[in-house]
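hey can u check if this looks right to u? its 129 residues, i copy pasted from the old doc so theres a chance i mangled smth
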Amino acid sequence: MSFDIFVCRFENSEPATLDMSAAHEVLDPHAVVRDPETDFLLVVTTEGDEAGVYFNNPTGITFNRFGGDGIMDLLAALLQRLDAVLVVPDGPTMIQRDEDRELLPTSLRDGPVVVARTGAEIDRAIRAS
């Protein structure tokens, strides 16, 4: 898929800092290209699926040109490790637990929000949007 999706955390409806060390622990074993100047990783799973990953700032990670079951599973593992949500522009916001909805800003809470814990659930939610 060639659009951007965003890994974020929220506390009290405000953006919260992501644990970037934990994010790197999840993603670095799959990195085949690194650009420290732009905080970019190209990750490739054992299935051969790939994604461009940008560490934007302390509150966001962007996945670009992503696809395949392996990337979706990797994304699910990242969301779980960071206790984060996935924001899909013009699509759903994916949370891990129903109670996470209350942590979201009103603008996201009022849009489509779905519980998606696995790579397959994330893939289905994106394709349905």
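The chain has a mean pLDDT of 95.
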